[in-house]
Amino acid sequence: MENRYDVAIIGNGPAGLSAALTLKNRNKNVIVFANSKTSSKVEKAQEIHNYLGFPEISGTDLAQRFLEHAKVSQVHIVEVGISVVYHMGEYYGLRTRNNEMYEAKTVILAFGVQFGKLYPGEEAFLGRGVSYCATCDAMLYRGKKVVVIGNSPQDEAEANFLADLAEQVYYIPNYKKVESLSEKIQVIYDTPVEITGDAVVDTLVCKNTSIQTDGIFVLRESVAPAQLVPGLAVEDGYVVVNRKMETNLPGCFACGDLTGAPFQYMKAAGEGNVAAISAVAYLAAQ
Amino acid sequence: MENRYDVAIIGNGPAGLSAALTLKNRNKNVIVFANSKTSSKVEKAQEIHNYLGFPEISGTDLAQRFLEHAKVSQVHIVEVGISVVYHMGEYYGLRTRNNEMYEAKTVILAFGVQFGKLYPGEEAFLGRGVSYCATCDAMLYRGKKVVVIGNSPQDEAEANFLADLAEQVYYIPNYKKVESLSEKIQVIYDTPVEITGDAVVDTLVCKNTSIQTDGIFVLRESVAPAQLVPGLAVEDGYVVVNRKMETNLPGCFACGDLTGAPFQYMKAAGEGNVAAISAVAYLAAQ
Question: Does the domain at residues B4-115+222-285 carry the CATH identifier 3.50.50.60?
């Protein structure tokens, strides 16, 4: 298998890139999975005053610096989201949103806290009609009706994948322009309001209409940590870590905003560094 | 009292300066105590590859960048060592090595781990003839003989202070050239080997000679954390902190190398950031 690494890092913000640099320095075989070219959160910051070494730098410039540093250090960044991480004992299996599989001996979670607000009913029906991963759960909806809520053109591939199996796919884009959706899919321009049903999902209530459906796929840039990594310990929505950035799963580390406040670039970069060193120690002990 | 601050930071390496920047951003009244102009440890580093944002920078350049950033942010740095920190309940009292007193509502310890190797017998006789602070313990040696082991010209002031009280002061410089020592003091160019005695210290054994003495002052750039802050919890020589960088003493935080491995600039700067945010929260709750 070619897609096999020492360390898989999910997220390319300050935490993920800092971890990647340190791991490259230690000659580890590292891959970084990124939802987008730069950390959108760093980019959005107008001016950053307390990232030591850069007095008054804009978020855009700082993000650029981070990526340049990663480039100089030959960090391998792949622009694809991860839909699920399975703990397989000796290693971790990572499934990308375009259905490729990767293996890594250790995983560093560093994808921040932009999970988006949940729809009413979303959590209650999770696993009972609500899913975050088309490539994982498509088979359950063979010959059925599903709704896909997409948040970026990247999500259209998943909807297309579903369209080959499901009887009918409705697609609700939470963005301006649909780019490459299959003709079999019916696009609905509306705003989801609530997910309802009885034992299982039966309706997606929108602002202007209600859609009868067997399943609802909510595709966001990031899914919540416990959804992404089954078995991961989370408290108040944040990944539980100790001072070594170890999670409850051996070989799985976390750093940056998803470990909780303060939500600061400096803290994230520092934690990424610690997570990397801990991963190195874990690999050495294997 | 004029020397009164919201936060006193001891140390001007990445941890201390990172904390200072964040506190300035939050409009806190901050003072940084520094043994020397820059963190000697950062300066000594040939090349640093994993401080995110600076691909391949020398230790000297990075230290310079850090200090410039502190300057731009108008961080108040005082070049004097701290000999002891007293927890006074509502606030902390800090005594400098030239015997000035400062008060701060919170203290951030960030002075690294360059405590120097202890002399055989040093720890055993601590408080029984061995002292790290002339201005604290001079009165105990009125009319007696003491030896001062100095590690930099800065230490000569403490020896001079002792010379006004003690009957005889011997000074052993662990550096090249004595600069401004009182004429009352006898300089001995020799290498300390061991501290001996019975119930209390009686002899400093050196390579070429042995000095009969009532007290031995060992003056180093940094003293061990538990010596500097009486009551501070330390484990294996490192300050015990939680994820918020809180120590066992309320209002006292620690960050950087003195909290333990990994000894990395990025980790230190990240921890400084967290310590600062925790200090802000502590002040707000007062």
Answer: yes
